[in-house]
Design a protein that fits this description.
Layout (H helix, E strand, L loop, with lengths): L1 H9 L8 H7 L4 H4 L13 E4 L5 H10 L4 E5 L2 H14 L4 E5 L12 E7 L8 H11 E12 L5 E3 L3 H17 L8 H7 L3 E11 L3 H25 L5 H15 L5 E12 L2
The protein binds S-adenosylmethionine (SAM).
Length: 273
């Protein structure tokens, strides 16, 4: 069953659904990724985490609103299964998870006090439409918190012709199904979606050591490229040998003592009127 679900999901999510990607997401925490949002949460709130992935952040947000309830939704069935396991292993009882699409959030109007999404709107082709759905399910006065990378801020050096080709390929597919450059306009998009008083924040992410670079390459870049491999080959963008060469080049970069990677995430909170 999971295999069938994953086959249908893979076409719409650029990273693909794989164990490596879930491992990458599992090191995330509410304290780090939702640092800008936590000050706005209060005990007893009802919170929705959209595109919750495998639930590491959701579980932390749930702890911040006890005895309120946190709900995580994600379009990936395998993500939701992993999130349920994660919360059970952490013993976090005020959180539950459901399959759901951000464009049609499966809850009535005005049913949450807080709505959050971390690195999710970058994956939809119309972030404004997703924001309007988030506003619909927020109660008047409810707070939204969003964080997404803007790929115009990506630095990965030293670069090589193969590393630049790999980056362009990933970006090409990200642009087809998502919005890798929308985050710089997050406040504008929030206002256009009917939110008020948007406040913006910056989160700087980077790697520090060879181990970090190895983790990023092995858990994100290579699995993402592998997930896209059939489409890349089918469209004639690169053949199998060229993709293998890109993977070898990425691995070689991750072992360099001078490899540097940095990416800025734009974040914001705003309120439903
Ligand atoms: C990079 S992961 C982030 C997961 C989690 N928010 C975190 O930061 O750990 C992006 C997630 O968004 C989900 N996603 C993308 N588009 C979605 C949509 N339209 N509706 C629901 N989930 C979506 C994907 O399935 C994936 O699990």
């Amino acid at each position: 069953m999971e295999g069938q679900a994953e086959a249908s999901e893979v076409g719409t999510y650029v990273h693909g659904y794989n164990a490596e990607h879930r491992e990458f997401l599992s090191v995330r925490t509410a304290a780090r990724q939702a640092d800008f949002f936590l000050p706005y949460l209060k005990e007893g709130m009802r919170l929705l985490d959209c595109g919750c992935g495998q639930g590491a952040i959701t579980t932390g947000l749930a702890a911040a609103i006890l005895p309120g309830e946190a709900v995580g939704i994600d379009m990936g069935e395998s993500q939701i299964a992993a999130a349920r396991e994660w919360a059970a292993a952490k013993g976090q009882q005020n959180v539950r998870f459901e399959v759901g699409n951000l464009y049609e959030i499966p809850f009535p109007d005005a049913s949450f006090d807080a709505v959050f999404a971390n690195t999710v709107l970058e994956h939809v082709d119309d972030p404004g439409r997703a924001m309007r759905e988030m506003r619909r399910v927020l109660k008047p006065g409810g707070v939204v918190g969003l964080a997404d990378p803007d790929y115009g801020t990506l630095i990965q050096e030293p670069s090589t012709p193969l590393s630049l080709e790999l980056r362009e390929l990933l970006l090409r597919f990200s642009k087809e199904s998502g919005s890798p450059f929308y985050a710089r306009n997050m406040r504008r998009t929030l206002l256009d979606s009917g939110f008020v008083r948007p406040v913006s924040f910056v989160q700087a992410y980077g790697t520090h050591t060879v181990e970090d670079n190895r983790f990023a390459i092995e858990k994100v870049q290579i699995p993402s490229l592998e997930a896209l491999r059939p489409r890349i080959v089918q469209r004639g963008l690169a053949d199998a040998a060229r993709i293998d060469a890109m993977i070898a080049d990425a691995r070689a970069w991750s072992e360099r003592p001078d490899g540097f990677y940095a990416l800025m995430h734009c974040a914001a909170v705003a309120w439903a009127p």
